[in-house]
Amino acid sequence: MTGTLVLVRHGQSDWNLKNLFTGWRDPDLTDLGVQEANAGGKALADYGIKFDIAFTSVLTRAQKTCNIILENVGQSGLETIKDEALNERDYGDLSGLNKDDARAKWGEEQVHIWRRSYDIPPPGGESLRDTGARVWPYYMTEILPRVLRGEKVLVAAHGNSLRSLVMVLDKLTKEQILSVNLATGVPMVYKLNADSTVASKEVLGDMSGAH
Question: How many CB atoms within 10 Å of residue 82?
Fold first, then answer.
């Protein structure tokens, strides 16, 4: 029997609230972000899962979300591996800029292309494809083998690092992934087959009730 993979995007950060490009910068969670992480943790507690290990990025907002979730499921202090392979997409020269200011500087269309194209990076930064190029090998070597051994694994990370994983797990094309937005603090529970394909996916606390 293979295990379970739970993906959670961190709760709202200070810079999400201020409409800034964040990338590898390291703002903390807002009060709302803490609430979102707690809600995700409660949903997982209600689901009845106990984790064998957790993975997160080297950024505060993901680590704090991870810790809050583990507190809620009664597993504070669980072994947690932190790696920059799971960091948010690096927005390069856009990092720290207000999104409206960036549009004023480079134009609405250009900023939209950087934000939403699959393989066009912002200046000095990463595209979604570039992000996947570091997330996928890390997933294949460090995370997937544990799930296939039957472990229950939590990954608390970021919108784009998780989108690159969801793209592979849900077998989405590079066009389809562009319209996918992951809700903050909402756990996605994947059960995998022995060949690493997805047996089932359940979104906990999703407003649409989609499974």
Answer: 16
